[in-house]
Write a structure and sequence with these properties.
Pfam families: Lys. InterPro entries: Glyco_hydro_22, Glyco_hydro_22_lys, Lysozyme-like_dom_sf. Keywords: Antimicrobial, Bacteriolytic enzyme, Disulfide bond, Signal. One of its GO terms (molecular function) is lysozyme activity. This protein is mainly alpha-helical. The protein has one domain (21-139): Orthogonal Bundle (Lysozyme), CATH 1.10.530.10. It contains five helices and three strands, in the order αααβββαα. It has a three-stranded antiparallel beta sheet with strand order 1-2-3. β2 (67-69) and β3 form a beta hairpin. α2 crosses α3. The longest helix has 14 residues, at 2-15. The chain is globular. The termini are far apart. It binds 2-acetamido-2-deoxy-beta-D-glucopyranose (2 copies). Residues 81, 83, 86, 89 line the site of one 2-acetamido-2-deoxy-beta-D-glucopyranose (NAG).
């Protein structure tokens, strides 16, 4: 029993940062992401696959000295405070909060980003890999239907 518990804890620690695909889909669905601003769950899945491979700890530095944070790869220049770049803090958060495996802050901030006029096209990963593509495969086998395409 004790051994099992230790193993479980280890598994959570090791795997905690990267979501399993369908688990991430269910998490986004229960957070009201399916159809949010007319963006289907399958498109959110495609976007986060290409941006971070569903990794909450993904961090990538850009040439303009801004940084993209977390599972949605949200940019520090416009959306959060990383104490380095100070153009705007649209989500009113510290960028590190976007790296939590408790993804509430990241999802709230992604909703804020998509409310801007350019919508989901704000994400290069989406424009490059998901726009005008059949994105249904990202939900395949999850037992979830995406409300829209
Ligand atoms: C979503 O799509 C509907 C139907 O095309 C449209 O009327 C509505 O304005 C859209 N909403 C947003 C937030 O884009
Ligand atoms: C960013 O966070 C730092 C550290 O908490 C704070 O000193 C600074 O005022 C913040 N900057 C902005 C633009 O919010």
């Amino acid at each position: 029993m004790k051994v099992l518990l230790v193993l479980l804890v280890l598994l959570v620690l090791v795997d905690g940062r990267v979501f399993e695909r369908c688990q991430w889909a269910r998490t986004m669905k229960s957070s009201g992401m399916d159809g949010y601003r007319n963006v289907s769950l399958a498109n959110w899945m495609c976007l986060t696959y290409w941006e971070s491979r569903y990794d909450t700890l993904a961090v990538n530095h850009n040439r303009d000295k801004s940084t993209d944070f977390g599972i949605f790869q949200i940019n520090s220049r416009w959306w959060c405070n990383d104490t380095r770049i100070r153009t705007a803090n649209g989500c009113r958060i510290m960028c590190e909060q976007l790296l939590s495996d408790d993804v509430g802050v990241a999802i709230g901030c992604a909703k804020r980003v998509v409310r801007d006029p350019q919508g989901i096209a704000a994400w290069v990963g989406w424009r490059t890999h998901c726009k005008n593509q059949d994105v249904s495969k990202y939900l395949q086998g999850c037992g979830l239907d995406s409300s829209l395409l």
